[in-house]
Design a protein that fits this description.
Elements (H helix, E strand, L loop, with lengths): L1 H9 L14 E7 L7 H12 L3 E7 L5 H10 L4 E4 L4 H7 L2 E2 L1 H6 L4 E3 L9 E3 L2 H12 L8 E5 L3 H12 L4 E5 L3 H17 L3 E5 L8 E6 L17 E9 L7 H9 L3 E3 L2 H16 L5 H14 L4
Parallel strand pairs: 1-2, 1-3, 4-6, 7-8, 7-10, 8-9, 10-11, 11-12
Antiparallel strand pairs: 3-5, 5-6
Helix pairs in contact: 2-10, 6-7, 6-10, 7-8, 10-11
The protein binds 2'-monophosphoadenosine-5'-diphosphate (ATR).
Length: 306
C-alpha cells in the first residue's frame, strides 16, 4: 500500500500545478458610435485599483440591432454593460427590472445581466447620481437649499432630474427651447419633487429665470455651434456653471461661464462618477474616483483640439 501511495504521490496526474487565474468578467460600453468612449480606460483603472478581475471593451451596435448585439454579448458570458447614445431608451425597455431612478429617467445607462432565476436583467441609470456626486463632492458645491437651472429636455436632462431632486435643492427649473418637452419631463417628476420638498417647474428659454446658484447645461446646443441659449442673467455671481459635455465640445460654454463670473465645470467628473456607480453596482466595490479623474483630466487637457 505504501508503494502505491508513493506512486500516486508522484503520478503525473497528481503533480500540483499553479492555479491558473480565472478569466476576467467581461463588461462593455454599448453604443453607436463608441470609438471615442473613455469608459474602457476609466473601468480599467477602477479594476486595477480595486483588484477586480474585469475586462471592459467597446461594443459597437448597429443602429437597428442594439438588442440582439447585447443579447449575444451576454450569451458569451459577459456580466453587464454601460449603454450610451442612442440606446439608453431601448436598454430601459429591455430589462426585466429597473431601479427607481431608471424609472424616473425612462432610460438606462447600465445593465447588469442577472440570471433569469432572479427575475432577469437589471437596468439602472447612474448619470444623475454621478452628476450629483461631482457637484457636491468633487466641486464641493452644496445642492441642498440651492436654486438650480437645468437646461434641455433630451435624454441627458431626463436622466439626471430624479437624483438632482433627491439632493433637495430649494428649486429646480427645467428650461427648454421646446417647452412641451420640459413639461412632459417635469410632470412625471412632480410626485418625486413633492416628496423631497423641491419646487419644480418647466419653462421656455425666454423666461428661464435669474440668479441661479447652479446652472447645468444638458442641451446639445454647443454641438451645433449655437452658443449658450440663455443670457448671463441666469447666473448669480459665483454660480457653478456645469456643461455635461467635456473636451472641445464644452469649451464655448466654459468660456461663457468664466466671462460672466461663474465657476465653470465640464462633464468629465460626472463621466467618472457615473462609471464608478456602475462599477459598484456590478462588483459591490466602490473605486476611488479622485485619482482616475485627475489622470483623465490630464489626458483630455493634453489632447489636441479637434
Ligand atoms: P440628448 O439625448 O443627448 O439629451 P436630444 O434628445 O437630442 O439629446 O436633446 C437635445 C437637447 O438640446 C434638447 O433639449 C434640445 O432642445 P429641443 O427639445 O427644443 O430640440 C436642445 N438643443 C439642441 N440644440 C439647441 C439649440 N441650438 N438651442 C437650444 N437648445 C438646443
Amino acid at each position: 500500500m505504501i508503494g502505491l501511495d508513493r506512486f500516486a504521490l508522484f503520478s503525473p496526474m497528481t503533480i500540483p500545478t499553479a492555479p491558473s487565474a480565472p478569466a476576467p468578467d467581461r463588461y462593455a460600453v454599448a453604443g453607436n458610435p463608441v470609438a471615442h468612449s473613455r469608459s474602457p480606460a476609466i473601468h480599467a483603472r477602477f479594476a486595477e485599483q480595486t483588484g477586480q478581475a474585469v475586462h471592459y471593451e467597446r461594443l459597437l451596435c448597429p443602429l437597428d440591432a442594439f438588442v440582439p448585439t447585447v443579447q449575444a454579448f451576454a450569451a458569451e458570458g459577459a456580466r453587464g454593460c454601460n449603454v450610451t447614445v442612442p440606446f439608453k431608451f431601448e436598454a430601459f425597455q429591455l430589462a426585466a427590472r429597473r431601479t427607481p431612478r431608471a424609472e424616473l429617467a425612462q432610460a438606462a445607462n447600465t445593465l447588469r445581466f442577472d440570471a433569469d432565476a432572479d427575475g432577469g436583467w437589471l437596468a439602472d441609470n447612474t448619470d444623475g447620481v454621478g452628476l450629483v456626486r461631482d457637484i457636491t463632492v468633487n466641486a464641493g458645491v452644496a445642492l441642498a437649499g440651492a436654486r438650480v437651472l437645468l437646461l434641455g429636455a433630451g435624454g441627458a436632462s431626463a436622466g439626471v432630474l430624479g437624483p438632482l431632486i433627491e439632493a433637495r435643492p430649494a428649486e429646480i427649473v427645467l428650461a427648454n427651447r421646446t417647452r412641451d418637452k420640459a413639461e412632459a419631463i417635469v410632470s412625471r417628476h412632480l410626485g418625486w419633487a413633492a416628496q423631497h420638498g423641491v419646487r419644480l417647474s418647466a419653462r421656455g428659454l425666454q423666461d428661464a429665470g435669474t440668479g441661479f446658484d447652479v446652472f447645468i447645461n444638458g442641451t446639445a446646443a454647443s454641438l451645433s455651434g449655437g452658443g449658450v441659449p440663455v443670457g448671463p442673467e441666469v447666473l448669480r455671481p459665483g454660480a457653478l456653471a456645469l456643461d455635461m459635455m467635456y473636451g472641445p465640445a464644452a469649451a464655448p460654454f466654459l468660456a461663457w461661464a468664466r466671462g460672466h463670473g461663474a465657476v465653470p465645470r465640464d462633464g468629465l467628473g460626472m463621466l467618472v462618477e457615473q462609471a464608478a456607480e456602475s462599477f459598484t453596482l456590478w462588483r459591490g466595490v466602490r473605486p476611488d474616483t479622485a485619482p482616475v479623474l485627475a489622470a483623465l483630466r490630464a489626458e483630455v487637457d493634453a489632447a489636441p483640439a479637434r
